[in-house]
């Protein structure tokens, strides 16, 4: 077999030996590029199809999920419970929390479920922080934190046109809530050093918003924390989704490229304890790889054209409602 391969490569070798130095250098560079691509493909195959999921028992007894009554958050809580982990559900509406708790217990009666109604728009108030701290102290052994709560634009809009209350919510739900929840959970995890899992990530928001810089900033912050706490056996991750069929994304039907919350949650939980930055659903990872392979100016222009088109349609719908 080896002799046959060498025989097939002999003409190529002869051509290279007779070629100018520039051609040889070009061929060598081409081989390096192809080798790098092959290694990336093999690495991705292992990451998404062969690498075994870690047991959640090594992280701790409890998983905490913010924004846990709908969409990705609820699906994440369900998946943690399916894996045998007790869950704490944090969200704004008490009735929806109770409904989510009852649904989880009906499917997985062996787990425990705690709930706490929290308006993360008021997360800067001492009373809200005290309530969160009390709940974390109550469950004690938190092994997984999914910072899922967040808010996005109703439709693509120029920043100066955003209402003041929406700007306030963007900061409180997407930045302050994540920071405060991390601060509440992290000290106990660091003290235990039992390889707990602290998960930070922009779940529920489309990765297309990376044009706005939000994902890059959050991913960079996660990378810094991951390096800071690696020696204490605390693993910090940022999971980057593309579109998922949720109310926030305004997509009703799931597909191969736009998974249901349950499908995405299974992929997300399966990647716990590994990479610091990852898009856990492999079709999303492929999309992001293709986007990042494109020139930045081209990606920015395409995103701008898409967002302007969506904005135009949204404004047209709003105008039609006003005229009814």
How is this structure best described in words?
- This is COP9 signalosome complex subunit 4.
- Keywords: Oxidoreductase.
- It holds the Pfam family adh_short.
- This protein is α/β, with parallel strands linked by helices and 324 residues long.
- The protein has two domains: 60-289, NAD(P)-binding Rossmann-like Domain (Rossmann fold, 3-Layer(aba) Sandwich), CATH 3.40.50; 295-322.
- It has ten helices and seven strands.
- It has a seven-stranded parallel sheet with strand order 3-2-1-4-5-6-7, with helices on both faces.
- α6 links the parallel β4 and β5 (197-200).
- α3 crosses α8 (261-270) and α5 (126-139) runs parallel beside α6.
- The longest helix has 30 residues, at 21-50.
- The chain is globular, with a radius of gyration of 24 Å.
- Mean pLDDT is 86; it is low at 202-214.
């Amino acid at each position: 077999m080896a002799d046959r391969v060498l025989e097939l490569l002999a003409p190529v070798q002869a051509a290279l030996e007779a070629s100018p130095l520039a051609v040889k250098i070009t061929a060598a560079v081409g081989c390096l590029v192809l080798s790098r691509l092959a290694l990336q493909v093999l690495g991705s195959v292992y990451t998404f199809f062969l690498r075994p999921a870690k047991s959640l028992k090594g992280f701790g007894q409890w998983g905490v999920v913010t924004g846990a009554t709908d969409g990705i958050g609820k699906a994440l809580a369900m998946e943690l419970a399916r894996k045998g982990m007790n869950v704490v559900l944090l969200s704004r509406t008490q009735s929806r929390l109770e409904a989510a708790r009852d649904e989880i217990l009906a499917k997985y009666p062996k787990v425990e479920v705690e709930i706490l109604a929290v308006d993360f728009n008021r997360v800067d108030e001492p009373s809200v922080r005290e309530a969160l701290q009390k709940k974390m102290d109550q469950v004690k052994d938190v092994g997984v934190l999914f910072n899922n709560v967040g808010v996005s634009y109703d439709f693509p809009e120029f920043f100066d046109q955003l209402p003041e209350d929406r700007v306030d919510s963007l900061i409180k739900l997407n930045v302050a809530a994540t920071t405060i929840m991390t601060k509440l959970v992290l000290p106990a995890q660091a003290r235990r050093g039992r390889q707990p899992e602290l998960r930070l990530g922009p779940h529920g928001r489309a990765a297309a918003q990376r044009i706005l810089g939000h994902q890059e900033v959050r991913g960079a912050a996660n990378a810094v924390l991951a390096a800071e706490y690696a020696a204490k056996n605390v693993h910090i991750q940022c999971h980057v989704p593309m579109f998922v069929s949720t109310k926030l994304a305004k997509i009703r039907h799931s597909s191969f490229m736009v998974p249901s919350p349950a499908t995405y949650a299974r992929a997300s939980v399966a990647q716990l304890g590994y990479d610091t930055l990852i898009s856990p659903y492999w079709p999303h990872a492929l999309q992001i790889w293709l986007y990042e392979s494109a020139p930045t100016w081209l990606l920015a222009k395409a995103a701008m054209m898409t967002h302007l088109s969506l904005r135009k349609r949204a404004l047209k719908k709003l105008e039609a409602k006003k005229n009814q």
